[in-house]
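Hey team,

Sharing the DUF6798 domain-containing protein run so nobody has to redo it. Sequence (513 residues) first:
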Amino acid sequence: MLFIAGGDPAPGVNEAHYLCRLKHFADPSYCRGDLFLESPDAHFTVVWLFAWVTQWVSLETTAWIGRLASWALLAVGWTRLVSRIAPHSLLAPLGAALLVYGTRQWQFAGEWFIGGFEAKSVAYGFVFFALAEAADSRWNRAWLLLGLASAFHALVGGWSVVALGLAGLITGRLAPLRAMLPGLVGGGLLALAGVLPALLLNVGTPGDVVGEANQIYVFFRLPHHLAPLSKGAEWLWRSGAGHAKLVAFFALLTWLRRREIPSGLRLMTAFAWSAEAISLAGLLIELALWNHPVWAAAVLKYYWFRLADIATPIAVSLLLVHWVGEGIAQHRRAPAWGAVALVALCVWHLGDAVVDRLKSPFGPADQAMLDPAAWIEMCQWIEENTPPEAVFLVPQRSHTFKWRAERPEVVTYKDIPQDARSMVEWRRRYEDVFQIGDGPNGERRWTPSLAALGAKRLRELGDEYGARYALSQAPPRDAASGVPFRRSASLPVVHRVGVYTLYDLGEAGSPTE
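Structure output:
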């Protein structure tokens, strides 16, 4: 089931972002000079454990090895959790399918647990194991496992610790502090592997630089994860309304089942409500600090909203499989028909995902490009025909240039560093390369393509950032005016594939049109 849900061709949206870092860590000559790759690592545990794989196999194979390892961890952890709650662990596949459906259809802040390989896909596997142990009141084991989760992803593990601790207090199942001390101390020590690299990112960095970087991260690059109220009413209605429906269904289901919920499942529902409370606290903080963006960014950067995207579907899934399993064991008709309906829902959702995958043979990260096939062909040509040390100006929204062409980039929207100094430099480069002014309402205007900047500006950017080539993607037709944007620059054309043109910035040329 996990393979069906997450088996898109590599690279996934975030795999090109993270796995290139692994390869650069193991081989610093790979894309030497790339701002993103040469910035400090925040998720050092997964880099340390998996970077060596990139020296033996391709990035695509590395992605599949990581996926299979994380999916196995998730599957075993989820099966253990379901076995603590439902009458039979055979219900685990149905529960997992419901969990995938809930996280994909009713998310608020864009969190997921199944997809491409990265640190958090491993971290959530340990969270599942920890919840299973907590359901059995083995709190020391739960805290140790959450320490492991934090070692891979500090925020996934850290917020899970907070939510599970609150859940234990709410249900009265939390063990005395003295009894849990070994697990808390051991888990805390394990968590340092994930927490310390993040804390050390900005040691010695001036406070004003950190403050600027926080605002870049929260309000410019990741408001959909970190500052949802700043996204506006339309986005809030689209994302918030769906999650609100899930929360309403969760509340109704909890109330209807209130007399039949065993203690372990009650702890899981409290875990979800605690995650929702954390999310609500984040919204209140954003409102309270609305006119204080420096303070707001310093607090909101810790991802207050994303655990609820996973915790509430976990609880809903467990409530449903418990109802189904208990009802079938008691030979009741309604749960049996309910199981048929739930299976049909999951088959429809997973089948739809398979159909979408069959329509396009390209990985999600490549699909960000206007013409994925031409993009891949161009990148392969660049890998085979340009110097390895050459730096490139690339399209604003490209995800996979380093993955496909193995050449360093000046800047892209996707690849934002994690430390403050590099983040500020990333923003400066991004605006310097792609911003072309401000609109009538003060909104930024971005170039439709690199070629539209013209030969003179491209050569200036090449001189400033040491770029030898500019790879331009032809812009789409202006929907409002029907007038095509300028599609070429007066520079020597090195190669052209479909909508992609590679320009040489090293020498002047004559107009191409």
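The CA atoms of residues 137 and 173 lie 7 Å apart.

Ping me if you want the raw files.
A.
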